[in-house]
From TrEMBL:
This is Acetoin utilization protein AcuC. InterPro entries: AcuC, HDACs, His_deacetylse_dom, His_deacetylse_dom_sf, Ureohydrolase_dom_sf. Belongs to the histone deacetylase family. Pfam families: Hist_deacetyl (PF00850). Residues 22-313 form the Histone deacetylase domain. Pathway: Ketone degradation; acetoin degradation. It comes from the Bacteria. Keywords: Acetoin catabolism.
Length: 387
């Protein structure tokens, strides 16, 4: 389906590094790019560099005093708890502003590529830092690059943007920035805030004119339930909203092996979600698709395979799940991490699901979560909440 695809990359994107014991380890992005290169996926895309976001660009979302605080921490390495830096989640480190601004700049470069038509799809796999607030670092996130990409597109005159977030955690920062802006439809599918950070993302958080949409799934949800929920909520809303550009965040911490969360998806289920969003970009947004990474804390078994599938999907050349990982990449994984690498690009699952149109089960907690969302927002879009 893709006419052109661009991956924004600079080796310096791995400088966003909270330290050796922090879950958000930059090696996950390094291994992803190495696997994508080894499998020939990067041959199917254009690689393009980026510049750090300027202070004026950051100020489209973030308060000026916060940007200055991050810069002071960046110069000294000393904490500033008022800015959220120096906590276990967001340790202070020298160079934090420069590293964060580069990730923000990479997502701005992706947005610019799609807006100017130099690429139909553009991806910043190092991005997706969706928890950062206008004046506070939160949840491993300093500058909110998806929100910045959306704000930049709005400033260019885009009238309707849809944002879909499939990270296991609620996309609270992006929702906060655009909560009262009916030009931006934000949809987040995440583990219930009753069991997972950040404690927000309930169905009743509906924003301006129902443009904030939250699907709060119970812990233990696997491929079939997650895909059932996705298809019951996301396609109808995207078809009705008809955004000019689709922006998506692809945290892969919904995987069963992720150590920080409790959903049970497989690589195969995640790959099915990427393919569905690709189709929806073409069906509802004229093919204009801005893509970011996100969370993901199983650094060897999950993130590199999931995001290599994502890059391949963006490129329009999906990888056969049975494809073996290459010997060179496996060797690199052992040398870089000391861990045993996965042998193939699949978890061996067939992610089938039953569509909600066939009827829903009020005793099923997944169906109850889906119906809570549909009842909260579908009528605000002129849609029937019932299957």
């Amino acid at each position: 389906m893709s006419r052109s695809a661009r991956v924004i990359w600079d080796d310096a994107l791995t400088s966003y590094n909270f330290g050796p014991s922090h879950p958000l380890a930059p090696v996950r992005v390094e291994l992803t790019m190495a696997l994508a290169r080894d499998l020939g996926v990067l041959d199917k895309v254009e690689l393009a560099g980026c510049e750090p976001a300027t202070d004026d660009e950051l100020a489209m979302v973030h308060e000026r005093h916060y940007i200055e605080a991050v810069k002071r921490v960046s110069a000294s390495g000393l904490p500033d708890l008022d800015a959220g830096l120096g906590t276990p989640d967001n340790p202070a480190f020298k160079g934090v502003h420069e590293a964060s601004a580069l990730i923000a700049g990479a997502s701005l470069a992706a947005a610019r590529s799609v807006w100017e038509g130099t690429a139909e799809h553009a991806l910043n796999v190092a991005g997706g830092l969706h928890h950062a607030m206008p004046a506070l670092a939160s949840g491993f996130c300093v500058y909110n690059d998806p929100a910045l990409a959306i704000a930049w597109l709005l400033a260019q005159g885009v009238s309707r943007i849809a944002y879909v977030d499939v990270d296991v955690h609620h996309g609270d920062g992006v929702q906060t920035v655009f909560y009262d802006d009916p030009r931006v439809l934000t949809i987040s599918l995440h583990e219930s805030p009753r069991t997972l950070f950040p404690g927000t993302g309930f169905p009743e958080e509906t924003g301006a004119e129902g443009t904030s949409v939250n699907v709060a799934l119970p812990a233990g949800t696997g491929d079939s339930g997650w895909l059932r929920a996705f298809h019951a909520v996301v396609p109808p809303l995207l078809h009705e909203f008809r955004a000019e550009i689709l922006v998506t965040q692809h945290g892969c911490d919904s995987h069963a092996l992720d150590p920080l969360a409790n959903l049970m998806l497989s690589i195969d289920g995640q790959r099915a979600a990427y393919a569905a969003l690709h189709r929806l970009a073409h069906e509802t947004a004229g093919g204009r698709w801005v893509v970011t990474g996100g969370g993901g804390y199983e650094l060897v078994q999950v993130v590199p395979r999931a995001w290599t599938h994502l890059i391949a999907e963006v490129a329009g050349h999906p990888i056969d799940p049975a494809t073996p990982t290459g010997q060179d990449w496996r060797r690199f994984v052992r040398e870089r991490t000391g861990e045993t690498p996965p042998l193939t690009m699949t978890d061996g699952r067939n992610p089938e699901f039953r569509h909600l149109s066939g009827g829903y089960d009020p005793a099923d907690p997944i169906d109850r979560a889906v119906m809570a969302t549909r009842h909260a927002v579908f009528p605000l879009h002129g849609l029937d909440p019932m299957p």
